[in-house]
Specification:
Strand order of the largest sheet: 3-5-4-10-11-12-9-13
CATH class of the largest domain: Alpha Beta
Number of strands: 28
CATH architecture of the largest domain: Alpha-Beta Barrel
CATH topology of the largest domain: TIM Barrel
CATH superfamily of the largest domain: Aldolase class I
Helix content: 25-40%
Shape: globular
Radius of gyration: 29 Å
Amino acid sequence: MDITVIGGGPSGLFFSLLMKRRDPAHRITLLERNGPDDTFGWGVVFSDETLNNIAAADPESYAEITRSFAHWDAIDIHYRGEVLTSRGHGFSGLARKRLLNILQRRAAGLGVELRFRHEVGDIETLPRGDLLLAADGVNSLVRSRFAAAFRPSLDWRPNKFIWLGTTRRFDAFTFFFKADRHGLWRVHAYQFEAGRGTFIVETTDAAWHSAGLDRASEDETISFCEALFAEELQGHKLLKSRAVWRSFPTVRNERWSFDRVALIGDAAHTAHFSVGSGTKLAMEDAIALADVLAGGPGDVPEALARYEAARRPEVEAVQRAAQASLQWFEETERYFGTLEPLEFAASLLTRSLRITHENLKLRDPDFVRRIDRGFAVKAANQSGVNVPAEPPPPPMFTPFRLRDMVVQNRIVVSPMCQYSAEDGTPDDWHLVHLGSRAVGGAGLIMTEMTDVSREGRISPGCTGLYKPEHVGAWKRIVDFVHRASAAKIGIQLAHAGRKASTRRSWEGDSEPLPDGNWPIIAPSPLPYLPHSQVPRAMDRAEMDRVREDFVRAARLAEAAGFDIIELHFAHGYLLASFLSPLTNRREDAYGGSLANRLRYPLEVFAAVRAAWPQAKPMSVRLSATDWMPDGFSPADAVETASALKALGCDIIDVSAGQTVPEQQPVYGRLFQTPFADRVRHEAGIPTMTVGNISSYADVNSILVAGRADLCVLARAHLFDPYWTRHAAYEQGYALPWPDPYGALARYTPRFK
């Protein structure tokens, strides 16, 4: 094959040498604008997993790399005068220049033609041969020239960082957090060779400007950082190497190749330095691409397509982790000073979701025991219930108090519409559905969305609480839950608004009824789907009537014996559609500004709170984003939660989206938890989190990191009503069984 590689970083060099190693007949020319020793940055980081991949691909490069690196297994977190150390993290640091020199020698020795200080001018004049590979980094000329084919996006992040070196020795990957009059400063530091360490300083754009660093020279920046971190540097100096403040760009491309042109490494994708994955991705790209091209020239475009199809999911998984990590560092002000040291450490260590509570326990069981012990003590103080601190229970099996209601554990069965009622009346299906999950061990059972009027139902099969006959049907279920389990049970009250009068979900989700439709109402006359019914814009009399429907339903809920009420301010139903500017186009006192859009939902909440016993808690489910430009935003969610807290709301059940059908959600594991985290810390109110929570490791991670107080599971509970009991068994926690199931105390299940 005849290959031209642009860019002499780790991806271009490693790919070139791997191809030559496979077949010396390949003609490979690598063009690099800098000299062989010109580089930026100080050290690069490899995980043990990445090193194993390099060893398998080229043992010679691996051998030389391992002769040069500094290895550690600990992470030190310096926070509020304490140093918290977690072990079992296998990483190695290596000088970036040293890595490049190793790869340069190896590539040249195999016959790769290396042309340094070669400035590429017109991309069109380069020989395509069998492959033109762009390994030319974040500011790729090739990507820019062929942007119409690659369709790139660059998300320049708000924080500022500078990559410095130091002579201080670090025996662990070290994080420093330090506040001064300008703001909060973060340091990512690690050893990469004897007498040399990387020292990355990061801060917000506001702090950077306040400190005058936007106008500072390199020497002035060094002096500022040495003075700020004098104690942490222990008398050592900071070293410069083309040190400039910069913002991190998250690079993505819709395509990585076209014809015989391809992107690799940072030209194709970036991952934030806080997860140490840039060099990892670059070199693993090189391995994967060399593997698909090993068969020779053949059909290169088809091989490139196979490479991308196989490699992209792995890269995107790392980018999702990196995105979560960089956002944590962008928002550290939220946690600094508010979280206790162990809670802060747990939040930092699990920030990317790649390390969970369970995974951390495998790495460092003593450290996790300290975290769990601290969490148990805090839970005992909060709930007023005795919780053993030694041995501490798994965090998910600690109690939590809301007013006079104490749940025995942190697992909540999410409201899940069953569409199986007749004129709002729950029946045996609902008894078994909710009762089995109570026996299954969850701490709190929530009913499905229960409508406060016949006209407020989503479908003819929805449950309701709008006539006296409903009380007995619900009381039968509530009494069973209380009699057969330790669970508490709550009811979610709602009005479907413009999403009312539709078919059951399995007959056509959100589709209008074929016949028998009833009139629907909303803040504004906007149909949900283009062919949906057009709702009538509510006047003040209808607003009064609906408010009283909620109050009546609350009184009926008390008669039925429910422990907690949740009002539905989410998913585009009536009260949510007042909140969103996408669905509220009113020009009166209930539309326009967020304060106006909040007015009616808060009025309803206040009326229900006055009607509901003061000893019993109230929750609100809130969509924290519409997933649409100019829609309801996370900042709006914080403001709404603060207003609800002032009216006596006890906890916010944080969800997202479903406001408009054209939403653009970003799904993934725990994809809604960041919203619950933000509301919890910025509004200062407890939260429940929901959304792709499926493992007890996720639950424990969320809790110990302070991201939410309760974890709400939906599909996991549909699949397994006994999910909580199975989680207890797997963690060795003795969750008591109901008396009729007492024989299970002597039963050992076998899963295979």
